[in-house]
Structure formats: C-alpha cells, structure tokens
Design goal:
- The protein has one domain.
- The chain is about 70% helix and about 5% strand.
- It has eleven helices and four strands, in the order αααβαβββααααααα.
- A hairpin with a 7-residue loop joins strand 3 and strand 4.
- Helix 9 packs antiparallel against helix 11.
C-alpha cells in the first residue's frame, strides 16, 4: 500500500510536467501569432540613406570646387579656410535657427498650445524619438516643416492656419510626417544644400549688380566672369541635389507617418486639404515663405505656374497613390 501511495504521486508529477510543457508550447505558438505587434516595422530606408550620403559627398565636392575657384582668382588662402570652416560650423550648429529666422517661426513655451504638446509627446513615444522643440508661424499658408541637425536638436514647426484647418487625426498625421523626417535624419542634409544654394545665389546677384552699376573697369574682369559662371553652376547643381533628395524624402516621410499613426487615410485627407487651401491663399503670402519650400509638407507655390520638373515635392496624386497602397497593405493583416 505504501508502494502504491509513493508511486502515484510520482506518476502524477511526471504526467503534470509533460502536460504543462505541452500547454506551454501551445501557448507560445499561439502568442507568436496573437501578440500585439506593429503590422509594419520601421526599417531603415536604404534608398533614402544612399541619397543622403551621395548628396553629402557631392556637396563636399561642390565646396572644394567653389573654394578652389575663389582661390585661383585672387581670394586669400586664409580667407578661403575661414570661409569654409565658418560655413560648416554655421550650417551644423545654427541650421535650425537659420530656417526658423527665414520663415519667421518662434519656439513655443510649454503652456502654449497644450494639446499640440501632448500630441507631439504621444507620437514621439510611438516613434521612439526625443521630444523636439515646437515652433509656430503666423501665416495664412497652412504648412509644417522640421529642421535641426539631429533628433536631439530637432524643431517641428507649424503655421497657425494649419492648426485651424485640420482636424485632430489629420494634424496628428502631419505631425508624424515631420517626426519621420527627424527619424530619417534627412533634414540636416537639406539645410546644408539649401545654404550652399543661397550663398551661390548671393554671389550671382552681387556680381550681376556689380556689372550693372559698378562701371566698366576691365581689370580683373576675366576672373570675375569665371567666378560668376562657377556660382551659377554651383547654384544649379545644389538646386538639382535639393530636388532629387527632397522628392524621395517626402515619400519616405509619408510612409513614416503611416507607420507611426497606423492611419494613412488621415494623411491623405490632410494633404488634400492643405493643397486645396493653397489655391486660395494670396500669392503675396506664399511668396514670403517660398524660399523654404523644400522643407514644407506641401510647397507654397502659385498654382502650376512652375514646371513640375523643378518642383521640390512629388505630385500630390502620386503621394496619395502610395499612401493608398500602404493603407491596403496594412488592412491585409
């Protein structure tokens, strides 16, 4: 009897052990399918990454060519080095301030637009990003942009009109779009390319007005003409680099917004509203911020007066088509 009593617990224990192991395996298998994980994971966009690095390399070559030409036609070596180092430091450490200054945006205090702050905080948690500074622009042009040299030094800016125009889900989608630019780390490259184009444009204009009103002194005119031609080339190349990178990065940021919010339709609706509103905004208001078009979610241009080839953004129809495809992929799961 004692033997029986001793054996029964042992048999029962082994049975329970096997039973529990089987249950654990089944539960593990089930959890692999039922676990609440994102439908689409955020993955590095190697197409965007390669374009960013290629743009940076070509910008470096532009720097060298530009500085070499200036040196060859009379600029002092020390002045060239000082200019190159100064431009690099200004672009890296003050890029966000330059963009904010050019657009008239100001950084918000913590007690201003509290709902906007809460939404940004929520989306940053979803995107695994540090909190950026938030800026506001007083403009009838509904738009938004992101700037800064890194995620830790990012600024996300909005016009007051876009906050009034969009509903909660649409504004959240636009916020996520700008945070996607931060996460993709493409904003510094855009700022640097825009800065070089701006410098080249200033040199072009200064030589143009000098030639118009500075008399006809032929001494050194050959070097002046060459520098002017090089400035035109630098401006054209940097502009083309901006266009090539900006179009692709907008597609990447649209996809990023869809991944963060899980609501591509909200961004589709927001883009349609912003684009429709652009058609009725006075041209003078758009002209004031047109220089920052490469940064905006929708470019502030007057209708279709400019060639699509030179647009900083892909056509709205193509962006919507891509977002609709992403939405269909999400609903397949």
């Amino acid at each position: 009897m004692q033997i029986t009593m001793k054996c029964i617990p042992v048999i029962r224990c082994k049975f329970c052990s096997v039973y529990c192991s089987a249950i654990a395996i089944v539960e593990c298998f089930k959890s692999a399918h039922n676990e609440d994980v994102p439908l689409m994971e955020w993955k590095r966009d190697w197409g965007l990454t390669s374009r960013v690095w290629l743009t940076m390399f070509l910008l470096f070559i532009l720097y060298l060519v530009f500085m070499t030409i200036l040196y060859a036609f009379g600029a002092g070596y020390q002045w060239i080095v000082l200019l190159a180092v100064g431009m690099g430091l200004v672009q890296y450490f003050f890029s966000d301030k330059l963009v904010l200054w050019s657009t008239g945006a100001r950084i918000l205090e913590g007690d201003e637009y509290p709902e906007l702050h809460r939404t940004v905080e929520k989306l940053c948690k979803e995107a695994d990003l540090p909190l950026p500074k938030i800026a506001i622009m007083q403009s009838p042009v509904p738009n938004a942009f992101a700037t800064g040299r890194s995620p830790k030094h990012a600024v996300v800016a909005f016009t007051d009109s876009i906050i009034r125009l969009l509903n909660k889900d649409e504004l959240e989608a636009v916020l996520a779009h700008e945070l996607a630019h931060v996460k993709n780390r493409d904003i510094l490259t855009m700022t640097m390319a825009s800065f070089i184009a701006m410098i080249a444009s200033m040199i072009m204009q200064s030589f143009f007005f000098s030639a118009m009103f500075g008399g006809r002194n032929r001494e050194g005119s050959g070097g002046t003409i060459v520098i002017w031609i090089v400035s035109i080339i630098v401006y054209a190349v940097s502009t083309l680099l901006i266009l090539a990178l900006s179009r692709y990065r907008e597609f990447a940021a649209d996809r990023g917004s869809a991944l963060i919010t899980k609501n591509p339709k909200a961004l589709i609706s927001a883009l349609s509203k912003i684009s429709g509103r652009m058609d009725v905004v006075p041209p003078e208001a758009k002209a004031k911020i047109e220089a920052a078009n490469a940064f905006f979610i929708i470019p502030a241009i007057s209708g279709r007066s400019f060639m699509e080839l030179l647009s900083t953004h892909p056509p709205l129809e193509k962006r919507i088509a891509v977002l609709e495809k992403i939405d269909a992929e999400m609903h397949r799961y």
